[in-house]
Amino acid sequence: MARLARNLFLALAAGAAGGAAASLLQRKDGGVHPTAKRAVKSGMLLYDRLRGVVGEATETMSDIVAEVQAEIEAERTAESAGADDHVVPFEMKATESEKKAHG
Predict the structure, then answer these.
(1) DSSP string of 4-47?
(2) Please, which pLDDT band fits residue 73 given cuts at 50, 70 and 90?
(3) Which of 21, 20, 10 is nearest to 47 (CA)?
(4) Number of neighbours of residue 60 by Cβ within 10 angstroms
(5) Widest Cα–Cα separation across the chain
(6) Bridge partners (DSSP) listed for residue 32
(7) Among 51, 79, 90, 92, which residue's Cβ finds the most Cβ atoms within 10 Å?
(8) How many other β-carbons are positioned within 10 Å of the β-carbon of residue 46?
């Protein structure tokens, strides 16, 4: 995830550098130098690609988290069901010998 954040930062930095370069590389006739336009275009394309990659990674992590949560819940349910097998009933019928002993 840190790698994706770093790549996104680099894309944004490239776009900003391209924008700064565009202002520095203006031609005297008021047009923009083609190199500056290419730099800005490259930065924008890289940013769009990285947005897609980050979106896919986020979706994958979301799926993994959901699967892990389901597994944990299944384990908890299995543990609580197993605990019910060892429960001693509160009310037990007294045997005949116990009835005679207690009157």
Answers:
(1) HHHHHHHHHHHHHHHHHHHHHTB-TTSPBPHHHHHHHHHHHHHH
(2) very high
(3) 10
(4) 10
(5) 116
(6) 26
(7) 51
(8) 17
Between CA 9 and CA 50 the distance in angstroms is: 10
Site of tokens 């009157």: 103
Question: Where on the phi/psi map is residue 14: left (φ > 0), alpha (ψ -120 to 50), or beta?
Answer: alpha
User: The pTM is what?
Assistant: 0.43
Burial 8-35 (b: 16+ CB within 10 A, else e): beebeebbeebeebbeeeeeeeeeeeee
Cα radius of gyration (the chain): 34
- Tokens of residue 9, six digits: 């930062």
Quick check: 22 and 32 in contact, CB under 8 A?
yes
pLDDT tens for 32-71 read 677 777 887 888 898 889 888 989 999 999 999 999 999 9
